[in-house]
Amino acid sequence: MLYGNEALEELGIVDGINEIIATTESHGKVNAAPLGIIKDGDSLYIRLFSGTHTYDNVLQNGWFVANITHDAWLFAETALEDLTPQYFERREGLPVLKDAEAWGLFECETFPLDIVIGKVQLVKGEVLRRDFRAFNRGQSLVIEAAVAATRYMALRVDSYYEELMKLQRIINRCGGPREREAMERLMDRVDSFSHI
Ligand SMILES: Cc1cc2nc3c(=O)[nH]c(=O)nc-3n(C[C@H](O)[C@H](O)[C@H](O)COP(=O)(O)O)c2cc1C
To answer: Is the distance from the beta carbon of residue 36 to the nearest atom of ligand 1 less than 6 Å?
Structure first.
């Protein structure tokens, strides 16, 4: 087990925006959703937009678990949907994604402004497996597509839908079957939302 902010790099949290999947909990129900942990030198914080389960749970409990994973499919899935309980396991009593490569428990001190800015610090964490692979454009673009999809759902601006269609073309060319499936599922959800 690793402890404190000194272990951030070991867990893969480096300068810039670290896209992780946050697991949080409310009344025994585990929630997972993508979240960015922003590291700027010694400063470490998150920006939480209201109206999400993650926002409510972090404000209520003051913590979240950061699941570090390269699996873009999980980002696309958790951006718009809930995961079923079989995706999670308990480590040290905390809800962790079974497929995470590492996880870290972050405590969060929140400052409600127009959006909530939370100063966070690493309490403890664990590397579960060290994964490496060649860089894949399709994988990165699934993350971009998940961001565009959440914005499209929230703001319903057409340019996000156009971006999604452009991203899908490149993902179909550069990604593997898992990335193509992630994108297809994302588009299905966006399309069914558009028709409401
Ligand atoms: C890659 C990625 C990064 C995201 N980062 C943030 C973030 O830093 N803060 C935030 O409030 N929402 C962020 N989102 C959007 C939330 O994940 C999204 O609103 C989600 O539906 C919230 O789900 P929940 O209601 O289960 O918490 C991000 C989405 C993606 C795909």
So the answer is: yes
Ligand 1 within 6 A of CB of 48: yes
- Locate the ligand 1 atom nearest the alpha carbon of residue 32 and give its number: 26
pTM over 0.90? The answer is yes
Angle, CA 9 vertex, CA 4 and CA 12 arms, to 5°: 115
Collapsed DSSP state (helix, strand, coil) of residue 190: helix
CATH class of 2-127: mainly beta
**Residue among 19, 25, 35, 186 to mutate when testing ligand 1 (max atoms within 8 A of CB):** 35
CATH, domain 137-190, list 1.20.58.290, 3.90.70.10, 3.40.50.300, 3.30.930.10? 1.20.58.290
Q: What is the pLDDT of residues 50-87, one digit of tens each?
A: 899 999 999 999 999 999 999 999 999 999 999 999 99
Query: Quick check: 140 and 167 in contact, CB under 8 A?
Result: no
For the ranges 75-79, 153-157, 168-172, the lowest mean pLDDT is seen at 153-157
CB 21 within 8 A of CB 82: no
Q: How far lies 19's CA from each of 35, 38, 46, 68, in Å?
A: 6, 9, 11, 8
